[in-house]
Amino acid sequence: MFDIEEELKKLPAKPGVYLMHDKKDTIIYVGKAISLKNRVRQYFQSSRNLTPKIQQMVAHIAWFEYIVVDSEMEALVLECNLIKEHRPKYNTMLKDDKSYPYIKVTINEAYPRVLYAHKAKKDKAKYFGPYTSGYAVKETLELLRKTYCYRNCNKQLPTDIGKDRPCLYYHIGQCKAPCQGYISEEEYQKNIAEVLEFLNGNYKIMTKRLTESMLAASEALEFEKAAEYRDLLHAVKKLSEQQKASDTAGSNRDIIAFATAGDEAVVQVFFIREGKMLGREHFYLTGVENEERADIMTNFIKQYYAGTPYIPKELLLGVAMKPEDEALIGDWLSAKRGSKVKLLVPQKGDKERLVELAEKNASMVLQQDSEKIKREEAKTIGAVKQIAKWLDLPQITRMESYDISNTSGFESVGSMVVFENGKAKKSDYRKFKIKTVVGPDDYASMKEVLTRRFLHGKREEEEMAASGISGEYGSFTRYPDLILMDGGRGQVNIALEVLDELGITDVAVCGMVKDDHHRTRGLYFNNVEIPIDTASEAFKLITRIQDETHRFAIEYHRSLRGKAQVRSILDDIEGIGAVRRRALMKKFESLEAVKAAGVEELAALPEMNRAAAEKVYEFFHEKEE
Asked: Which helix (H) or strand (E) holds 369?
């Protein structure tokens, strides 16, 4: 038994990270401290100085653990990693997990390539970005390729020159074929130098080149080619127009501000690179109610910049948004960047105007999205609450649904899908090959699937008990609050029978009762059919779960068939290979029909002979004896 008071006495006065656990062993909060002894003890003293959210969190703490590190900087880094890994309920969380593309130029190669990159790596290449629009990056690369005709292949040049024929890009005029030696390294590098100028924001060189090419083609009466150059010129002008929003300093900085409403916040970030605004993006935070503005900004900076490879020279922040531990965060960002990073709150001029603009944009996004957020919650959490109300259950968090799919009983598979808080949790989906049931017996197959699922959970619990682990060990130990069966009384009774046999008493089971058109008309629960509002979000959620369960089962079954991996009991018969098995499956509707057929009927199939037919007949009838 974890004695909090005793454990508080053992806390060291050293820097580190602490993790708060609830009674289910779920990590509900992660924090860092210069002194673990002082910081953690504060949670369990007078609650007067704690926010309502932290008071609620403390009420759910069953035990805590901590990790001692050598410095506050190490504690900050570890805290960021643990928050991202565990996403604790009571931490202010960045909801978006976005990554931004780069343009990569392999300047370390004799014949450099210009590529779309998902991450900036330390590989001696030159990276431009990050850009907020992947589509814009692809448009830019297409424009550059059509203008400068560089290579994108993986050939090792100049070693591989002349080894293969030129590729399709050469034949359509979008590569100068350096792999054939059709362009010198000096000329190729000159083109790449112009590409680098363009990516650095100098559009004049490309504009001049395209204008000259267009006029030359026109004078040579090559009007189609001239039109192509004209279109490329329009694309360059369009791109340059998008870059005109700028500040006067010409440096790299992110402008960050946010707006809040209740427990939600929207953070707006403007990306300024070489004085030009490359784009903007907004992010959602949850758990911000009663949080100080500086704390909200601190949480955003730590979570966002822990996951992005590019750190600008400056972060411009809104009023009262500068983190309390500004020096520590500045040192952390500087270490990640490799040079000094400043956190500034501008008081006047263009910089202040940009911060105000970011805050106004955040307010506008928050206002526009408030209804969207409400609708999304109604479809998920609100719908789950409605289902719980229909069934008179105190709370539903996790729901599981099952389905059986087979081809005339020759192969049966089962599927398990999981929804948590109204959203699909695909990491917990599971597939089952039916092992003990012969023929299209959905009830027996469902019993096998449910038995295997909950037996697996029981085994995991026993392993945990043996090793001294508490809480949740794996996805199977996480029992559902509700099982949704795709059927009425029969399916429900199968599930209840399995749970009863295994001694599991705290899992509710309800069935989906169909009308004459196979549409759900109600829920079968506790021997009563409960009518449901078919226009409600709860009904739509039930339908989504039902459809997803069918899709997952059918998709699994098809994948097995497509890979020719479906195994039938017929494969156990000597002399029956894939061709004869398929013929039997096509001719007879089920294994029962094959079993009932006589030798003459079996031998009548073109793919069969009498010896094979006798083997099939003997196989089934010997089993009966």
From this structure: helix 349-379
CB 7 within 8 A of CB 64: yes
CATH superfamily of 385-562: UvrC, RNAse H endonuclease domain (3.30.420.340)
The answer on pLDDT for 215 being more than 80 is yes
pTM of the predicted protein model: 0.46
Would you list the DSSP string of 141-171? HHHHHHHH--------TTTTTTSS---HHHH
Give the pLDDT confidence of 51-98 residue by residue, as tens digits: 888 888 898 999 998 888 888 888 888 888 888 888 898 888 877 555
Homologous superfamily, domain 4-91:
GIY-YIG endonuclease (3.40.1440.10)
Residues pairing with 103 in the sheet: 116, 128
- The answer to whether the 385-562 and 569-624 domains have the same CATH topology is no
The answer to whether residues 148 and 194 touch, using CB atoms and an 8 Å cutoff, is yes
112 upstream amide cis, omega within 30 of 0: no
Q: Rounded distance, CA 104 to CA 415, Å? A: 43
Contact between residue 288 and residue 264 where contact means Cβ atoms under 8 Å apart: yes
Tell me phi and psi for residue 453, to 5 degrees. Answer: -60, -50
Tell me the C-alpha distance between 195 and 175, whole Å. Answer: 14
Two structure tokens written together for 78: 């570890």
552 falls in which pLDDT band (50, 70, 90)?
confident
Mean pLDDT, the chain, as a whole number? 82
CA distance 578 to 569: 12
Q: Which two tokens stand for residue 566?
A: 């479906």
> Are the CB atoms for 539 and 523 separated by under 8 Å?
no
- Residues 2-36, buried b or exposed e (16+ Cβ, 10 A)? eeeeeeeeebeebbbbbbbbbeeeebbbbbbbeeb
Q: What is the pLDDT of residues 469-492, one digit of tens each?
A: 555 555 677 889 999 988 778 889
Reference 286, options 453, 143, 90, 492; nearest CA is 90
Q: Please tell me whether residue 563 adopts helix, strand or coil conformation.
A: coil
Phi, psi of 16 (to 5 degrees): 175, -170
CA distance 207 to 204: 5
Q: Do 285 and 265 form a contact (C-beta atoms < 8 A)? A: yes
Give the DSSP letter of residue 246.
B
Q: Which CATH class is domain 253-370?
A: alpha beta
Strand order in the sheet with 63-68: 27-33, 16-21, 63-68
In the chain, where the domains are located: 4-91, 102-201, 253-370, 385-562, 569-624
Type and span of the H or E element at 342: strand 342-344
CATH 1.10.150.20 fits 569-624, yes or no: yes
- Per-residue pLDDT, averaged over 191-212, amounts to 82
What gap in Å lies between CA 343 and CA 253, rounded to an integer? 10
